[in-house]
Specification:
- By secondary structure, this protein is mainly alpha-helical.
- Strands 1-2 form a two-stranded antiparallel ribbon.
- It folds into two domains: about 70 residues, Arc Repressor Mutant, subunit A (Orthogonal Bundle); about 150 residues, Four Helix Bundle (Hemerythrin (Met), subunit A) (Up-down Bundle), CATH 1.20.120.
- Helix 2 crosses helix 3, helix 7 runs antiparallel to helix 8 and helix 8 crosses helix 10.
- The protein is about 70% helix and about 5% strand.
- The radius of gyration is 22 Å and the shape is elongated.
């Protein structure tokens, strides 16, 4: 194992064991290097690597801290990697959406509070009668992300959000080229909303599957 990898593992071990809790300040560099049996250069490289993936927060003039370790923060690194997807993998991202989003909808049907359901309704109502493609796609993204948040599972919500980027161009392309895309999106979004509002997780799951699978199938044919 490379020296830097060993240093990363040792710091990770301190966090996992609870010795360094979220928000905790790391000991001074010299003290920590001696304690872990590492050179200060190796320790610096490890800290730099862990800060890039939002495990550590290096504050100039103040010290280095463990971040909150919230899933949203840690999954930012995944979003960065996902941004480098190739166009020929976009169908695979839709396949993952088809796995995750129906479950998020089902969970939202049992977890969303009335004010959150009202907010979801407001997102539906905010879509103009004759929206531009940009308005349609923006509304679609907001609707799906609100459901993901409403699932109550922060990891699931962050994963779904990270998949938005690779599928954005396909959503725009569909809005530009598929006849009736706006009406179909509105109809299916309404069905998903109603299932969530009436607390029917199986129906919410089914409609979300139909919705995402329909876009996936359109893209498959278009490609």
């Amino acid at each position: 194992m490379a020296v830097t990898d060993a240093a990363i593992d040792r710091i990770k071990g301190m966090i996992v064991s609870g010795e360094l809790a979220p928000g905790a300040r790391l000991p001074k560099e010299a003290d920590l290097a001696e304690r872990l049996g590492l050179s200060r250069n190796s320790l610096r490289e490890a800290v730099r690597a862990l800060s890039l993936i939002n495990v550590l927060d290096v504050r100039q003039g103040d010290g280095t801290y463990v971040t909150s370790l919230e899933p949203r923060l840690l999954l930012d690194a995944l979003s960065f990697v996902v941004d480098f997807h190739r166009d020929d993998t976009v169908l695979e991202f839709f396949q993952v959406r088809r796995i995750l989003e129906p479950e998020a909808a089902a969970m939202a049907a049992t977890a969303m509070a009335p004010p959150d359901i009202e907010e979801l309704r407001a997102i539906l109502d905010a879509l103009p009668d004759d929206p531009s493609v940009e308005e349609l796609v923006a509304n679609d993204l907001e609707f799906h992300q609100r459901i993901a948040t409403g699932s109550g599972n922060t990891v699931l919500s962050s994963l779904i959000e990270s998949l938005s980027g690779p599928t954005l161009r396909a959503r725009i392309w569909r809005g530009l080229t598929q006849e009736g895309a706006t009406a179909k999106t509105r109809e299916q979004h309404t069905a998903i909303y109603e299932a969530i509002a009436t607390g029917r997780p199986d129906v919410a799951r089914a409609w979300a599957t139909v919705h995402v699978a329909g876009v996936e199938e359109w893209l498959r044919r278009a490609l």
